[in-house]
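User:
Note these tokens:
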Amino acid sequence: MDRIKNIVLIALLIANTFARAQNPIANNNATMSALGETLYVHANTTTVVTGETLYCKLYCLNPSNNTPSTISKIAYIELIEKTQKSVLKQKLYLDNGKAQGDFFIPTTLKTGNYKLIAYTKWMLNYNTSSYFEMDITIINPFQPLDPENIAKNDSVSEEVSLINPEIKNEGIFSILTDKKNYSFREKVNLKIQSLEGTMQKGSYSVSVRKTDALSHQKQANAKEFVKSKESVSPAKTIFLPELRGELLSGSIISKKGKELNHKSVAISIAGSSFALKIAETDRLGKFTFILDKNPNLSNLVIQVLEEDRDDFSIILDESNTVDLSRLSFLAEFLLSPKLKNAIEERSVANQIENAYYAKKKDSITTFSGSDSFFHPLEKVYVLDDYTRFPTMKETITEIVLEMYYKKDKNKYAIFLRNYAVPNMEVYGAPLLLIDGLLIQDANELFDYNIENINKISLINEPYVYGPKTFGGVINITTKNQDYETRAKGDFIKNITIPRPVNQKNYYQPDYAAGNFNSRIPDYRQQLLWLPETKLDNLENTISFYTSDIAGKFEITVEGFTDTGIPVSIKDSFEVNNAQ
């Protein structure tokens, strides 16, 4: 008995120390200066017609040598309109300093110049170059054009007609297609070769896209980005680095002037695959959770986990404070009537492609589910394996022999028994979950329709989780796994937060023999988008197919070697209907 108590106390001490370590740290300028990071974004285009998708590859780098930064695991990317309002936003997982994302451009966005910005929370601690920015132009042919956007003459400005110069030989790699002219739906073999006789391992993104008169904003390539980087210095405000994953922080407030230190706060992500975190507050009542990558669900329940919980309220920290005041937008560009055909062609192509979206879906990396945090220690009672009883009381008494309950003034309490561990109640009530959602009032369970319960899982031994010790674990799994707590008050919050988007494998048609489907039109402007290419060989071949659109197509390769050398290469080829 003493041995069990000692183990529990030691584990609890370790858990408390870890929980306190999650809370905000003091300002340390020397540390921040040594551990800076920066972001470079390679986008597939800088001019987007509504209905198209803007693809992005993010490189999070150590600014001193341009090698991948391992400080942050979460990046943020936003599209900002000229009123300094964020219109599209995503969280992205950084895997060894790399991430990929995309924005489908809706018809609700107006024609005009926008900014694409990217950052990590850690970058926001620096008072200059706190985020990456890129000029993006959106053209919405479905909304009336403002008069100031219409050119008075019928000429296309030099800026609009500008096409990025080709860079065939970057010094490290060369790129070469098997020929310069292709017909519709023909296979293109793109070779990327090392010029130094050694493999240049790294991370690279490859884009193949049609060029036209609308491609007018030149984005900085990797080499130009490295040359233009500014030195950074830390600011006074401190944002914690998302070193291990996505952070969610806040604080509790006492309604009666009670101590805020060492209070437990729990966060539940309920469902078929669920997650539970318990953190301990510091002397100011602050807490921080590190959310796991999976389950990647947006609905969360946060609650104060104390007997006097009704005396506290929860306030969540605001989302990232990004200073957009320094953004300088390009002057509104003028659309010449000569661009009418180019805009119409792009818009029609988008509508055709979107109409066949069901046949050309991108595949998303999905979470297949995982075992609960207490697996495989639990004992499971599947209620359909037994004679069903009409109430929870009878079910506990007749089926789940390890469970028992007490009732005092219409208030229920549940406990677990273990004859090898006398007096389990000394460790407190068990950790009670319904579909992974932490429940503090056992009355919820007794009032619930027993017919909706599928199984009861339990561990009838002392259990340490986070900073708390429990007299075991009970998880009730409902048939639909959609339980919603009845608990109400300032001590509990049901919130919905944006979660990092899942990685995609982007659609590529296969027109090899036997796969040619002439009945499905192919109006892709973007022939290829490979956000993650390794180039692990001296000669690397990437194959893809042309579409039913003629014109000039530009190949762009951007990235960084493992040693931090920027790589930027461009080439082009033609597509026509000649057979």
